[in-house]
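Researcher: Quick sanity check before group meeting.
Model: Go ahead. Protein one:
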Amino acid sequence: MELVLAIAIGVLFSCGIWLVLRPRSFQVIMGLMLFSYAVNLFIFITGRLWLDKPPLTTQPGPIDPGLYADPLPQALVLTAIVIGFASTALYLVVLLGSRGLTGTDHVDGKEREKQE
């Protein structure tokens, strides 16, 4: 299972790098989203995969940490998903505004010079 997740993280990250290096703004945004997915998976995996283990306990007395899942990576990933969604929405609004002003979504603007 760890090998499959490591390969998935590597594929997401490498596809994100490829998209970030593309000349169009929308592809750069998609690459940043893939980066965030790869980082979210990495953070989630650092908490280990537990099956049928509760994240919290209400029992008094000493606690055996081996019996419970770590809730911190889950909380971090949930927060990262919300922040990533908000920043992606902001990027898309800025992208649409710049496309409306320049007429292109090229990062360097060379496509508009070719059209004129």
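Researcher: Fine. The other one?
Model: Protein two, sequence then structure:
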Amino acid sequence: MVAEYRITGRRAGEIAADVEAAVGSGALEPGQVLPPMRELAERLGVNPHTVAAAYRTLRERGVVETAGRRGTRVRPRPATTARGRDHRVDIPPGVRNAADGNPDPALLPPLAAAFAAAAARCDAEPVLYGEDAVEPDLAEAARTALAADGVPAGPIAVTSGSLDAVERVLAARLRPGDAVAVEDPGWGSLLDLMPALGLRTEPVAVDDEGPLPGAVERALGAGARALVLTCRAQNPTGAAVSARRAADLAEVLARHPGTLLVEDDHGHGIVDLPLRPLAGTVPRWALVRSAAKAYGPDLRIAVLTGDPVTVDRVQGRQRLGPGWVSRLAQRALVELWRQPAVRPAEVAAAYGRRREALIAALDRRGVPARGRSGMNVWVPVPDETGAVARLLHAGWAVAPGARFRLAAPPGVRVTVSGLAEDDIEPLAEAITSAVGPAPARRYE
């Protein structure tokens, strides 16, 4: 029962706002039980229907959850308190940063020439209100590249990054209270997004080849209406969907044809493993490609394709908000795609050498680690807090796994993009000292 904080308000909106503010300030903590509706209504002198409406609003906003006889309680990770804030690592001076998940700036292409060319074109052909939201050259190039990777034909939209695309697709197709199957461990920002949209999560275990078919089957069988998966360079484990795994997942989806499938190919341009798309295996699908990892996080552009209804809903809602993603930026991205200086294979190889060297160095010391693709390595640990603290003391910052986990066992994420060859052995030694040899995890 809530003893430390007394909820106030006379109207449903006032009650909901008071609870949400209390959660945001920490006065109400994750997991804390709220008063029963009738009890709170009597205390506030309002109709129980008013409290019921307030609690419903809080559920839809991802602040609380209803747990049957256990009552209504603040979610373990409410939308009001993002996971990133709770699990951020403060990096002291002199400590090497292997925690932030950023690409290597040395592997990013120069932007000046591409934007200069795009700006010159915009001077000659200004983009005005009422014009197409998608740059025609970008749409043509994106369709060609997607078709070459086996993605079915579909309309093209442009969003402000992968998470923007995923949010718009989920909002266009789902309702608050719906469940979504998500990778576990998985992208922390995506896990934050779910309660912010009022959606519930069904965790799905992941191995090096992607989501486990049995886990996906259980999640969809339990009522999940959507599946969000990462095609390659999965964050934080580096998993990449293989041809065999794609075939197995396609069989699962065939048994659940009403599922909304969302595929995130944010690793495009930094990974040398082929794309194994599931797009088109169900009627409602979307696939998004971001430019952030290959061209820089500040280039907030992602290409989205999918079934016509989903993409049309996304674009319709987008028109009522930002309207469109800057055509200047879109034209600059087309210029970058055309530049011969951009060599994705060399970028992928550079990340691959660092990632594989760290995994091998840890393996020699008896410490299992995972990282099939991308720029991150996932290391299972018995105690995240202790491991992160000991590594900080040794001069290395890594990301605690709690940022990426729902039900998965503990671990830490190590970003290899900033590592030099001489860093590998000292970092592996520091990790070994911090976590000790750990048994390999079996996935079933």
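Researcher: One line on it for the slide.
Model: The chain has a mean pLDDT of 91.
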